[in-house]
What we know:
Elements: H1 5-33, H2 36-61, H3 107-113, H4 116-121, H5 128-134, H6 137-153, H7 161-168, E1 172-177, H8 197-207, E2 212-215, H9 220-227, E3 233-236, E4 241-245, E5 250-251, E6 254-255, E7 259-262, E8 268-272, H10 279-293, E9 300-303, E10 308-311, H11 320-331, E11 337-342, E12 345-350, H12 356-366, E13 375-381, H13 387-396, E14 400-404, E15 415-417, H14 420-437
Parallel strand pairs: 1-2, 1-13, 2-3, 13-14, 14-15
Antiparallel strand pairs: 3-4, 4-8, 5-6, 7-8, 9-10, 10-12, 11-12
Helix pairs in contact: 3-11, 8-14, 10-11, 12-13
The site of the ligand O=P(O)(O)OC[C@H]1O[C@H](O[C@H]2O[C@H](CO)[C@@H](O)[C@H](O)[C@H]2O)[C@H](O)[C@@H](O)[C@@H]1O has 24 residues, from strand 10 and strand 12.
Amino acid sequence: MAMNQYELKHCVLIFQLFLFFLWLKLFSLLQNAGSSRLMGWMRLAVLTTTVRRVLLMDLKTSNSPVIADSLPKLALPSAVMTYTTPTSFPSTGLYLNTPKKKPLPGKIEEVRAAGWLDLMLASSPPRKRQSKDFVSDVQADELDLLYRNWVVNHPSALTSFEDIINLAKGKRLALFLDYDGTLSPIVDNPENAVMSEEMRSAVSHVASLFPTAIISGRSRDKVFDFVKLTELYYAGSHGMDIMGPVRNSEFSGQHVECIRSTGSESKEVNLFQPASEFLPMISEVFTKLGESIKDIDGARMEDNKFCVSVHYRNVAPDDYAEVHQRVTAVLKNYPCLRLTHGRKVLEVRPVIDWNKGKAVEFLLESLGLCGKEDVFPIYVGDDRTDEDAFKVLKATNLGFGILVSSVPKDTDAFYSLRDPAEVMEFLKKLASWKEEST
Length: 438
Ligand SMILES: O=P(O)(O)OC[C@H]1O[C@H](O[C@H]2O[C@H](CO)[C@@H](O)[C@H](O)[C@H]2O)[C@H](O)[C@@H](O)[C@@H]1O
């Protein structure tokens, strides 16, 4: 008589139960008989079976997207910029030429395949207060050791200050500063990322001695509201909204469209907005993203004019994948927009070949400092998006980048500083050195 699969499974289960009781009986008999050698062998057998089971279980579950963590935490995965080449879009002429990506499988797999979930989990180091509260002493020691090894290759700009001024002597220094995490500490609510008065006066002091610009992912207006210094140049929306000096409308030998405008204190300025054609699309996507994430606890949107930020700093880590999935689902209908990743923030921006690095080149050109051997640009920033600027400076071999980080990170910056407090000290030292040397 043939058995179906269900009946067969039942038979196997009953047989296994029978064997189990047989084992128990044998076990108690041997225990009573006091046969210690046999007992030893049996323990070994039980142990081996358990180990084998655990190993098999591991093998079975190692495909689970939640357990494995094979992506290196410090590497910037090549898939950071997950965007597709649009088939048609506005005509700025700065579009990125990237190959179309293959569609990825289901939700969690999609997030992991691109390394996004790891990136989201690791995207902002714990602040000092948190590491004391939650990370054990051992972990803190390990981190400390890792940091001390890393800083050998990215020396502190404070302890190496003498080397820096030796390099800068006789050159025209230009300063580029990121805002969040560089001039103001990272806080839970982006609206509260105010700059201290002491930092403001340090920035104002250096700006009176060297051309100084702030290059931020925030909208230009918002970053100006925080900094409130008219003597600086400002680039908002990751460099897609530059208010720079009036000079020429050339960039890398190409004519670029600038708008002559009057800035604060009636100063004449040039406005360069290479993504202006994307404005209607960005505001449409802002509304759609807001709708799509509104029920996720802690998720919040920020309108940065030419880009949109989706913050997940206050979201439970279990919901990170959900945030990412909702954002990518909306973006599927917008091939002209791409997603990049900052500190606990997903940033949506136009697919144009423009970033903080290009903004630095543009500003150097507008300041009449481009391609000159006696120019010494320094860029200070803490974020992944600042890497584009670090790369530009590294390639020119004139100035250098300073990464603000208290944990080791992959970077193209040459020097490092731990936090905004050290940035302020560095700015003060620069100003004193300049004043003493003139
Ligand atoms: O280029 P930046 O000036 O560094 O701007 C990048 C993003 O900074 C802000 O977000 C970050 O700082 C917030 C306040 O400390 C923090 O809450 C958030 O988690 C960080 O990602 C800003 O709010 C974003 O819009 C910028 O894109």
